[in-house]
Design goal:
The protein is an alpha/beta fold. The protein contains 16 helices and 10 strands. It has 3 domains: about 1-160, 2-Layer Sandwich (Beta Polymerase, domain 2); about 165-305, NAD(P)-binding Rossmann-like Domain (Rossmann fold, 3-Layer(aba) Sandwich); about 340-415, no CATH class.
């Protein structure tokens, strides 16, 4: 059996190429069935995110790389020159290593990000539902999930902030150790705020309010994350509710000033507030930093946190690579052992046949009144002789032909102490 992984990602292709080969979730099952129905592959799974599209295959033959790439090209109605320069291909051991690195966040745009593991699990689930997962990929995916968990447990790959959104939430967790009883006000609804909202949700934030000029956009995000959406104009009315304020808009002028913050603090009876201004130009007036009970951070303040986080994750990534290297060997050992399964089955069947013949003989002797102890002794002697007869003949012949490698293999196979050593 052969494993093959092909794909493109953020390192090999720009977004205008990646979007051409993306698979919407509602098309993945049909695509998988189409790929398997061509008899090009036995098993298949598709991972499709904003940063990568990858196809993992289980094959009976080698050298199917171009065939699978052709299928990808034809499925999306593309020419070879459209995607060929951007596609990578990993066979067997390299495919296993690639999947383990992807699941552990080592191949991500943001080193160590955890979302990709969930996306891989969704990929496995979709392929399983489509009926395109078999023994090979099933084992590989389960092994991958286990290794990714080990990497998260045994290294600090996901602990340090390496994005502005993650850094902002990390600050919130430092200042308010338990976020369950706190409210966050997010100003804006762009990519950074969306990522911040997801990090807050994962961190167990008690309540989220999302304020945006286009309230429909805020509502879409709020619906997904069980938050509360408001128009930006109503933001000052809700400011006092917020323990955490994170702002990232495209405004040319500050949208939150000292006066509104002072009023909110008064209404809060001066309970502390964390404010993180991610926007450039700034959304929050610098004078707010002079107020008591306000912790104001700008994007420049977060850069130092991010740099430290990157250093920490890079060190953790080296540990993760060592774990992955050893686990690749482990999986490939299992894969290679599959070739011996038929031999083991045949050996076991032969032994069981011999045992069955001798058992029937013993039962007849007992029925004829032969003493049980004699029957048992005869059964053991006959079965031993028959089991070792063929190996003994072949080992003797190997000695006659000076085939020392076969004799050495027999010593190892039967766990013997060679009298010649």
């Amino acid at each position: 059996m052969t494993i093959l992984a092909i794909g493109i990602n953020h390192d090999t292709a720009p977004v205008e190429i990646r979007e051409k080969v993306a698979f919407p979730p509602d098309r993945v099952s049909d695509a998988l069935r189409d790929l398997v129905s061509t008899r090009l592959v036995n098993e298949a799974a598709i991972l499709s995110t904003c940063n990568r599209t990858e196809i993992y295959c289980g094959l009976n033959e080698n050298n199917r790389e171009l065939t699978v790439i052709d299928w990808l090209k034809n499925y999306h109605n593309l020419n070879s020159e459209d995607i060929s320069p951007f596609v990578y291909s990993h066979p067997d051991r390299l495919a296993v290593r690639h999947m383990l690195r992807v699941a552990s966040g080592l191949d991500s745009l943001v080193l160590g990000e955890p979302q990709i593991l969930g996306q891989l699990k969704q990929s496995f689930s979709a392929a399983n539902d489509a009926g395109t997962i078999g023994k090979l990929l099933g084992r590989l995916f389960q092994h991958t999930f286990s290794v990714a968990k080990q990497v998260r447990t045994d290294t600090a790959i996901g602990e340090s902030p390496v994005s502005v959104a993650f850094a902002a939430v990390s600050l919130a967790k430092q200042i308010f150790s338990n976020l369950e009883n706190h409210t966050a006000l997010l100003i804006g609804a762009g990519e950074t705020i969306e990522l911040t909202a997801r990090h807050l949700k994962e961190s167990g934030i008690g309540r989220m309010i999302i304020a945006n000029r286009t309230v429909e956009k805020a509502q879409n995000l709020a619906n997904e994350l069980h938050a509360y959406a408001i128009p930006l104009a109503e933001m000052p009315n809700h400011l006092a509710e917020a323990d955490i304020v994170i702002s990232s808009t495209a405004s040319n002028l500050p949208i939150l000033g000292k006066g509104a913050t002072e009023s909110a603090l008064k209404a809060r009876k001066h309970r502390p507030m964390l404010m993180v201004d991610i926007a450039v130009p700034r959304d929050i007036e610098p004078e707010v930093d002079g107020l008591d009970d306000v912790y104001l951070y700008t994007v420049d303040d977060l850069r130092e946190i991010i740099q430290e986080g990157l250093k920490s994750r890079q060190a953790a990534a080296e540990q993760a690579e060592e774990i992955i290297d050893s686990q690749v060997i482990h999986f490939m050992g299992w894969l290679q052992s599959l070739g011996a399964v038929s031999t083991i089955c045949a050996f076991r069947e032969s032994a069981e046949q011999l045992a069955g013949i001798e058992l029937k003989k013993a039962q007849r002797q007992l029925a004829n009144g032969v003493e049980a102890e004699k029957v048992i002794q005869q059964l053991a002697r006959n079965l031993t002789n028959k089991l070792i007869h063929v190996p003994s003949v072949n080992i003797k012949q190997a000695g006659y032909e000076d085939r020392t490698e076969l004799i050495d293999a027999a010593v190892e196979l039967f766990n013997l102490k060679n009298s010649d050593n």
